[in-house]
Amino acid sequence: QLVESGGGLVQAGESLTLSCVGSGDMYSIFSMGWYRQGPGDERDLVADINIRGSTSYSDSAKDRFTVSRDNAANTVTLQMNSLRSEDTGVYYCHARGRAAVWLNDRDYWGQGTQVTVSS
Question: Most exposed of 17, 31, 89, 91 (fewest Cβ within 10 Å)?
Answer without folding.
Answer: 17
